[in-house]
């Protein structure tokens, strides 16, 4: 740990999620320093961006962090890309180590077009909280997702425009990182197959038996990543 004190652990959720997805990890009991799990811009209760880019997301997250204090960032999916962007040092944050869980490496033109189309549509408004939560869960790949009351009904707590953020340059982000990086994914994650990660790093962490949202499926299986990250500092 830096100077005998553990850095702040910053947990970044994936697309259409919120900071609450990390609740089961109980990181405060398993990390020696402070823990933060903010909502990404346009997600949960966080204000939206005028335009969604990975740099714009990272810049907004960086605004909420003390530039004088070191941090370790563990991000899932979209949050993992934002974590890698922060690792570049371009946003004035002292990142000591990064863990990226379930980051999608390979994108087809059809997948990018689908994201752009979804980002161009207005948010769906539902009559009940339960209907909205089910739809939000489909967007996030979870049993239920975060919602808010708005426009006379309920809607997923995500700005639809965030779905059009596009394809991340993972090789470029890894090359720009100024700290150790740990890539990880669930063994059965169709969005982040182990062979895709091995094309980027020699030794990704593969979590046996788990899918894209391993931190929700089995927080216990993901907790060892905290120890791995602590050892990198």
UniProtKB/TrEMBL annotation:
GO terms for molecular function: hydrolase activity. SUPFAM superfamilies: alpha/beta-Hydrolases. Signal peptide: none annotated. The keyword Metal-binding does not apply. Residues 9-222 form the AB hydrolase-1 domain. It holds the Pfam family Abhydrolase_6. InterPro entries: AB_hydrolase_1, AB_hydrolase_fold. Keywords: Hydrolase. This is Alpha-beta hydrolase superfamily lysophospholipase. The lineage of its organism: Bacteria, Bacillati, Actinomycetota, Actinomycetes, Pseudonocardiales.
